[in-house]
Write a structure and sequence with these properties.
Blueprint: H1 3-13, H2 17-28, H3 33-39, H4 41-44, H5 49-78, H6 84-92, H7 96-103, H8 113-119, H9 123-131, H10 138-142, H11 155-171, H12 174-187, E1 189-194, E2 210-214, H13 220-231, E3 235-240, H14 243-254, H15 260-309, E4 319-323, E5 330-335, E6 341-347, H16 353-369, E7 374-378, H17 383-392, E8 400-404, H18 409-413, H19 416-421, H20 427-440, H21 442-446, H22 465-483, E9 485-486, H23 492-496, H24 502-516, H25 533-539, E10 543-544, H26 562-571, H27 576-581, H28 583-587, H29 601-612, E11 642-651, E12 654-658, E13 665-668, E14 689-698, E15 703-707, H30 744-752
Helix pairs in contact: 1-2, 1-5, 2-5, 8-11, 9-11, 9-15, 11-15, 12-14, 12-15, 13-15, 14-15, 15-22
């Protein structure tokens, strides 16, 4: 661990040296982020998971920078050109671009125009010209360099070669590149144009046919959309500042008057910018913009995923799950409270009156036979129609009928995990099981699916896949450990996400459980092969045993703190169970009396909070939701309707809302609230229940625009929610310069205002 890095990170994150050093030490020892944040508050000064993750990521970046510096130093040293001054510059470089600028003159090169000129012996002439002596005559100085054998037959050829060398010097000048880099990122304009022959087949990129915007201000989704269009061969994308500004900067650095020699240098300067500097810095700026866009898009995806994984669970109850379909029928399964498959069959409620009657009778029978407490219906094709059918059966009012987002269920059903769980059932049955289990416990089921397949991201296939995977893995791990895992019923996929466990140890736990029966205590986990002291320390606090002899085994109190709780109980002349069940006993405890070197007040307060609600689930209580009856397809929508919906995805330009018509509507960021909203995440989150007003239905383009503005209430008849006789006023403003957005639907919404 390098102390300099600790200082850098502490300064950047505005943390104390002690906090950063302690977190870094724990990470180096193999501690996980959830464990550090939950059980090592004394060491880190109560850093949360986000802060610990930032320390981890920055340490990795600085370590990568150190490795690159070592490579650069070795390369220059091997060339015999490393000086102490150069070594200090390299070791002092703070940014990757700064380091690469220093290295550029020494980087091994392919054969260039400058290297060819050097081979012809023109470097001394370049030195003379670059000095820009006011009395120097370039053509006279070029004559001694004429050499027909080297292909230099005129003064103009000699001067051209010398300018090539000067152009390369300018290109490799660190000050020039630093100044231009600032100009490109601060004042550069990103532009996209459609390729003439691709206009008809690239309609999805219509907003980018002639788009430009300051690269520093361009939102991530527009940058990613334009780059995707370029990658697919429909657009060209460039970024550059005003050329005169760039040339002025270079003139300031390199020109010394207006002598004939200076004119040669200026010609070289123009050539260097257009041929070398501008293309190089454009590529670098596009990478910078892409990195910034990736970071924002990944953060949006991570936030959405967290809200989806932490959606309220219906709980361990008997569920009938239905994967709807028209022609092929509805695949139906019955599950016990632990999600075990009890029964499956196919019904055909949408194949005529006779089949519908038979399907209804069959559902009533199954509901009675399996004591069903809820019916979960996938929200895909035929979902709303199947919901209406089941509601029409008028089952017991105690049986809830619930629509479930089935995004990713088909991915799961065809996966190796699903085949291992249900080897004797086909993908349709597995999909139905996944829908039912997703209602019972969204987190436990969704951990089996690649997060990218869940459908809550924005341009997830265009961003850096390594960074995306790391971020999403962090979110899944964080959510699993925040909720805790019942070790005697958890799947291997869920166990693998527990702090300190991983896939291999998870399989060992399952194997031991299958062979020996349920674990009776946390301590019994130590009998599992490869479940050593380190793994136990990291995992134990996040594992739950609901019916263990020691009630603390069902809580988030770590076994290393059991002795503290037992002492609290002895001091109150009661049992640990009494302490957990009686607030009056806990209220008498003074936590300061139990402070030790290992357990300070933060840990003691956490223990008391856990004793009050042992094993508490941080997720919200489940609340049943229903879409508007009679509104089941886009053609049922009319501008002005006010409808309930569920947010399915949040992006940088707005939120998508499921209103039960098989196609999500978009609430553009400008329609999220009556006050200005810069980031949609300020207002909405995935799985949030909202009320929206239908603004527009574009049947041709299959787009639905919605509003969450309170003022939109005036666009409907208050008592019934029925549409007004005429479309709502659009409050059109005087025509302004058109602003282009990343997709036609977004543009249509924005330009309407």
């Amino acid at each position: 661990m390098i102390e300099q890095h600790i200082s850098t990170i502490a300064r950047e994150l505005q943390l104390s040296l002690h906090q950063v050093r302690s977190a870094a030490q724990l990470l180096e020892e193999g501690a996980t982020i959830p464990f550090i944040a939950r059980y090592r508050k004394e060491a880190t000064g109560s850093l949360d998971e986000a802060a610990v993750a930032s320390i981890r990521d920055r340490l990795a970046q600085l370590d990568a920078m150190d490795r690159r510096k070592a490579t650069v130093l070795k390369s220059i040293e091997d060339q015999g050109k490393l000086t102490e001054d150069l070594r200090e510059k390299i070791l002092g470089a703070q940014l990757p671009g700064e380091l690469e600028d220093i290295y550029l003159p020494f980087r091994p090169k392919r054969r260039t125009r400058a290297s060819i000129a050097r081979e012809r012996g023109l470097e001394p002439l370049a030195v003379l010209l670059f000095a820009q002596d006011a009395t120097l005559d370039p053509r006279r100085e070029a004559k001694p360099f004429l050499d027909s054998e080297k292909g230099i037959t005129s003064e103009d050829e000699a001067l051209a070669g010398a300018r090539d060398i000067i152009a390369e010097w300018i290109n490799e000048n660190a000050a020039a590149r630093t100044g231009l880099r600032t100009l490109f990122t601060g004042s550069g304009i990103i532009r996209s144009r459609v390729l003439a022959e691709k206009e008809k087949e690239s309609i999805q990129y219509r907003d980018y046919y002639d788009w430009q915007e300051p690269v520093a201000a361009a939102p991530s989704h527009r940058i990613l959309a334009a780059r995707r269009g370029e990658k697919e061969g429909f657009l060209t994308v460039h970024v550059e500042p005003a050329e005169e500004d760039a040339l002025l900067l270079l003139r300031t650095l390199f020109l010394r008057g207006d002598s004939p020699a200076s004119q040669q240098v200026e010609n070289a300067l123009h050539d260097s910018y257009k041929r070398l500097l501008a293309p190089s810095l454009e590529t670098e700026t596009m990478q910078w913009a892409k990195g910034r866009a990736d970071t924002e898009a990944i953060q949006v995806f991570a936030d959405n995923l967290r809200h989806l994984l932490m959606a309220p669970p219906f709980g361990s109850r008997r569920v009938m799950a239905v994967d709807p379909g028209f022609r092929t029928g509805c695949k139906l399964v019955c599950l016990d409270p632990q999600g075990k498959l009890l029964h499956h069959e196919t019904i055909h409620p949408h194949s005529g009156a006779q089949s519908s009657t038979a399907a209804g009778a069959r559902i009533r029978t199954l509901v009675a036979d399996f004591q069903v407490e809820a019916v979960a219906i996938g929200n895909g094709t035929a979902g709303r129609e199947t919901e209406s059918f089941i509601r029409s059966l008028r089952l017991s009012e105690n049986i809830q009928v619930i629509m479930v987002d089935e995004s990713g269920a088909s991915i799961y059903s065809a996966s190796d995990i699903a085949r291992e769980e249900f080897p004797n059932h086909d993908v349709t049955i597995r999909g139905s099981i996944s829908i039912g289990r997703r209602l019972m416990d969204p987190l436990a089921e969704l951990v089996k699916i690649d997060p990218k397949s869940i459908g809550v991201g924005q341009y997830q296939h265009d961003v850096d896949q390594t960074e995306l995977r790391k971020s999403l893995d962090d979110v899944v791990t964080s959510c699993v450990n925040a909720v805790g895992v019942e070790v005697n019923t958890a799947s291997p996929q869920l166990l693998a996400r527990v702090s300190g466990i991983g896939p291999r140890l998870a399989r060992n736990i399952i194997a031991w459980r299958d062979e020996n029966g349920p674990f009776s205590s946390r301590d019994a986990l130590k009998k599992v092969p490869r479940f050593g002291p380190k793994a136990f320390q990291q995992a134990a606090g996040f594992l739950r045993l609901r019916n263990a002899e020691n009630p603390l085994d069902a809580s988030a109190v770590h076994p290393e703190s059991y002795a503290i709780v037992e002492k609290m109980a002895r001091d109150q002349n009661c049992t640990v169970m009494d302490l957990m069940s009686k607030a009056s006993l806990r209220d008498r405890i003074d936590p300061s009396l139990y402070v030790t070197e290992e357990a300070l007040l933060p840990t003691l307060l956490d223990i008391l909070a856990e004793l009050a609600k042992p094993g508490r689930d941080p997720r919200e209580q489940f609340d049943s939701f229903s879409f508007a009856q009679g509104v089941e397809k886009p053609s049922d929508l009319v501008p002005g309707m006010r409808l309930p919906g569920i947010v399915t995805n949040v992006t940088a330009f707005g939120a998508f809302v499921d209103i039960g018509v098989h196609r999500d509507g978009l609430v553009h960021v400008s329609e999220l609230s009556d006050h200005f909203v810069k980031d949609p995440r300020e207002v909405v989150r995935v799985h949030q229940r909202v009320n929206v007003t239908v603004l527009e239905v574009d049947m041709e383009r299959k787009r639905i625009s919605l509003s969450m503005k309170l003022s939109a209430d005036s666009r409907r008849t208050p008592a019934t929610g029925e549409p007004l006789s005429s479309p709502p006023s659009r409050n059109r403003k005087p025509s302004e310069k058109k602003t282009v957005f990343n997709n036609p639907f977004e543009t249509a919404l924005k330009n309407r205002k």
